[in-house]
Amino acid sequence: MMPNFDLLMASAVSFSAIVLSYLVWRFGIAEAISFAILSGGFSAILDFLSAFAAENYVYPGQSRLWVFIYIFFGWISMCGMSLLIAEGIICRRDEDMLTQRVYLWQVPVLAAVVAVAFDLFIDPVAVATGYWVWLKEANVYYGIPLLNFVGWFVLMGLAPFGWILITRQRSWSGAKKVLSSIVGIIPLGVTAVILSILMNSALDALSLK
Amino acid sequence: MHASPQRQVEHVLRRQTPFGQWMPPILYSLNVGAAMAAAIAVGAADLLYLALFPLPALIAYVWSMSKGQP
Questions:
Q1: Which H helix or E strand runs over A58?
Q2: Domain residues for B40?
């Protein structure tokens, strides 16, 4: 069976639409837009660079526009799902991820762990299916380089962290939250690059690829 | 578009509703199911055991909800 990229795109868009609808219902429109910017935009920009600047992997036969749109919606879906699962595990029923300061880091860290655990299943399946092909050397896990899981952990931790940090600001207007999300991509991006370099260097030192 | 204190309470109250509680694990399960279906469709059923990786998070979520955290 050949990979069906239309189905892949449709599923990413559908799941992200469900996640965003839920966030609109729970938190409001501005907060959902902020989440789309930080989980989709921020992560998609860095993942796009991973695909085309660093040439870590390819989606066979797909244009750069297709790849950007897919990873934009795919990250919204994955990030939202992982964040909400992490919230459900950590937060008491009469609270949520915005109500306690300690959740600012606890929930994003667990969301990153949840996302990586999820990717340990879907990445080998996607590679076997032919949806994407890794171009980097890998010697540990199904031909998938460990930098992939480092990237998932970093992005799936930082994007929720940025979103919770902004959404917690009760006195901010919706417009300010959205604008802050756009501006926030820069420090989050710098942090993501630094963390990724540090973690990948540690793996390289152990000859784990 | 200022978020009022009432609005801050609303997102907690909405989380406590059945929809608020159960939509996340249902979405999560659908994603796992979609990946399992994709694995079976391409003859990669030998990878299905990897679905064990996402399961602990789902179990922990359901356990947290069902134990009725105060």
A1: strand A57-58
A2: 5-66
Which residues have C-beta within 8 Å of that of residue A75, sequence separation ≥ 6?
Answer: A39, A40, A43, A44, A47, A155, A159
Q: Which of A18, A26, A113 sits opposite B27 (nearest CB)?
A: A18
Residue A55 · residue A132 · CB < 8 Å: no
Write out pLDDT tens, residues A17-36. 999 999 999 999 999 999 99
Tally of domains within chain A: 1
For residue A137, give the nearest of A209, A58, A52 by alpha carbon. Answer: A209
Look at residue A59 and tell me whether its pLDDT is greater than 50: yes
Tell me, yes or no, if the pTM score tops 0.90: yes
> What's the domain count of chain B?
1
Task: Please provide the average confidence, as pLDDT, over all residues in chain A.
Answer: 95
For the stretch A146-179, pLDDT in tens is 999 999 999 999 999 999 999 999 899 999 999 9
CA distance A33 to A183: 14
Candidates B4, B7, B8, B26, partner chain A, best to mutate (most A CBs within 10 A): B8
User: Which residues form the domain of A40?
Assistant: 5-205
Which residue in the set A11, A85, A128 is minimally distant from B47, CB to CB? A128
Residue of A nearest to B54 (CA): A118
Rounded Cα–Cα distance for residues A83 and A97 (Å): 9
Cβ neighbours, 10 Å, residue B60: 17
pLDDT recorded at residue B5: 52
